[in-house]
Amino acid sequence: MDFTLHQLKTFIKLIECQSVTKAAEELYLTQPAVSIQLKNFQKQFDIPLTEVVGRQLYITDFGKEVAQSAQRILDEIEVINYKTKSFKGKLAGRIKLSIVSTAKYVMPYFLSDFMSTYSGVDLIMDVTNKARVIESLEKNEVDFAMVSVLPKQLKLNRVELMQNKLYLVGGTCLNRNPKQPVIRLFQKHPLLFREKGSATRTAMEDFLSKKDIPIFKKMELTSNEALKQAIVAGLGYSIMPLIGIKNELKNNDLEIIPYRGLPIITHWNLVWLKSKKLSPAAKAFLEFVEADKERIIKETFDWFEKY
After folding, report:
1. Which residues contact 199 (CB under 8 A, 6 or more apart)?
2. What is the pLDDT of residues 127-143, one digit of tens each?
3. Which of 171, 206, 282, 292 could cross-link 278 (Cys pair, CB 3.0–4.6 Å)?
4. pLDDT digits (tens, 9 = 90+) for 154-180
């Protein structure tokens, strides 16, 4: 065997993407370059690693076994690199985070200074819905998660970061009459929801149920950005986190509509399993967040307190 680490990385990326074209995009390489790497890798085995049926690429059972071994090799190489940096006196390692989609407007600001200070630390951050975030915690796939609603079924440690405010919002293009009772909006226009598993959707449904608000028509969108653009376009109204609509409010594309019982207020929390043994890099990040969170909130989110 005379395979290279580059070939291993390329093959692993092919497994993840199930497509040579997508693997090339992920690796920032041309498709021919990826194909050559995979061809040279395949030459070292008498058994096919992949097969094409129709136009669909499939990984053979043997290919899956090779991929598992390749991943272990790459993981060990990564450990060696981190240990090398540690012996040089540098903090090194990898931090894995899973955050709910609206937390993408918050979490990067708690990472920026830390990642700039510790160049030997790598970051993997999965932005997804609440259900997937909880699953990643349960399976111990991540060091930390960021959520606004704590899952009751897990034993967690947490650092409370900042408030999460949810308001009723609509597009200014709808030219709402401010003198008209808000309840009529729900009777005339669609209400836009996030997908099932979203904490924002759960909060919105709970609020509507408690207030016994009628729903004229319901639409569902699977990302916060899609939902926001739909509201800007005038498709309907929704209850959304303030954190994600700063620019749209500033540009007068969206408006906050006062309504009794709003805003819904929760808190963003950085959480991790109580049983989790944090790596040196993860411990350093936790210490940074606890020491600097007030400064970060004051410097970055001062606008948030105006609403």
Report:
1. 100, 129, 130, 147, 148, 149
2. 988 888 999 999 999 99
3. 282
4. 999 999 999 999 999 999 999 999 888
